[in-house]
Structures are given as C-alpha cells and as structure tokens.
Amino acid sequence: MFSTTIIDVANEINVPCYLFFASPASFLGFMVHYPRVESVETESEFKIPSFKNPLPKQALPNFVLNWKSEEDAYWWVSYHGGRYKETKGIVVNTLQELEPYALQSLYDDLQLPPIYSIGPILDLVGPVQWDPNPVQYNNIMDWLDLQPLGSVVFLCFGSLGSLEVKQVEQIAIGLERAGVRFLWALRAPPKAQLEGPREYTSYENVLPNGFLKRTVGMGIVCGWVPQAKVLAHKAVGGFVSHCGWNSIL
C-alpha cells in the first residue's frame, strides 16, 4: 500500500508492476479519490465514488479532518494513492458479492488500471503461528464446547486493538446488563507509540469492581486468542469487532 517506489524500479527494468491491495475496495477508492479537505471545516459530509452514501465528516480519518496540522500524514497517503494509477493493474482482497458498488465504481474509473478482485484471501486451515498461552487457549475452547449453540458473544478488537479504561468499563457494564454469555479478548494499550498492545497482568484493575465474580460461568475475559478458530466454533453467535478487513472477511 505504501511501497509505491517499487513502481519506479519495475519500470526501470521493464517489468510489469501490479499492486496488491489488502484492504477493501471502498478504501481503495478513498485512496485514489481524496475528498476536498479544504472544505472539511464547512462541509458536513463528503461524496467519495467508492462509497454508496456520502460520508459524514466525523467518519473521516484524523489526518483528513486535521489536514493542516497533520500535513505530513495527509501528503503521505495522498502521494501513494495517486501513484496507484501508474501500475498495470490493482489486485484487491475483496469479492463482488461483498462490495459490488465499490468495485463497479473502480471498474468505471477510466483513470485507473484494470481492477482484479480475488478475495477473500484468508488462511483458515493453517496452524496458528503465534500463541503466547496455549493453556489458556485450550481452556477457552473447552469452555466453548460446553456452551449452547450460538449463545456466546465474542468481543475482539484486532491484534493491534486496545481500549482505554473508561471504554472497558462501559463494555463490561453493557455485557453484565445484557446477561449474555461472552468471550472477551481484552488487551492493554501499548506503553510506547511504536509498540503493540500488551497482555494484562490482572483484569481486576481495569474492569468494574466485582465484575469477574458476578459473571463467572457466563463469560471469560482473556488475552490474545486465534480469532478465526473462535469464530468458527458453533457456540459463537455474535461478534463485536473493530471491523478490520480480515475480521470482516
């Protein structure tokens, strides 16, 4: 997505250059058709060709909303998105049935090279490549085996996702009031900007007082889990997600 300098290398040695775009086609359209950020302070919504409906201003990324103060980030994305048109074709990890409108808008754009939708590209049968706590994983799967069909809500916000304490508290309150069975993959925010989320040493410090005792038997709060394997379990009937593209697929 951000390695467009390879286009120059490919052209220099006369090799066709294709872009593999791992995100949705709708976001590809956003990358190649940046909204007019100059009017972001006066407009309430923006029309982007790959989105069926106008986007409300609050849905735009921060580097668009704050383009004057985050000029470097805005320029970075704008530059790379503009260079996509120089490739021989764009291969997108999506499928026609999932994004018909976005894909058609890209097909109709005469300024773009050919678009190839080849998704979904997912490794659902390969082994889990990283598991920091195999005992925890086995306990979770054993617990899921005991739950009724489609009764468990799985909450997971991606391998890079974490929540602030106030957000954790509100989700916990909602789960307890709903009275649903749940499996919650909860991770601590990173300590530094370039680090990923961490595993909590104790959930008592972040969850409402007594939450774990009151929900014992009804739910599990855990760290990292293999998302695809959990979602494939017959006991899981709901998914609360950050809506990352791999999670959606």
UniProtKB/TrEMBL annotation:
**Molecular function GO labels:** UDP-glucosyltransferase activity
Pfam families to which the protein is assigned, alphabetical: UDPGT (PF00201)
Q: Which CDD domains match?
A: GT1_Gtf-like
Keyword check for Transferase: yes
User: What are the UniProt keywords, alphabetically?
Assistant: Transferase
Q: Which family does the record claim for this protein?
A: Belongs to the UDP-glycosyltransferase family.
Report the protein name in the record.
Answer: UDP-glucose flavonoid 3-O-glucosyltransferase 6-like
Q: Give the species.
A: Trifolium medium
The organism's taxonomy opens as: Eukaryota, Viridiplantae, Streptophyta, Embryophyta, Tracheophyta
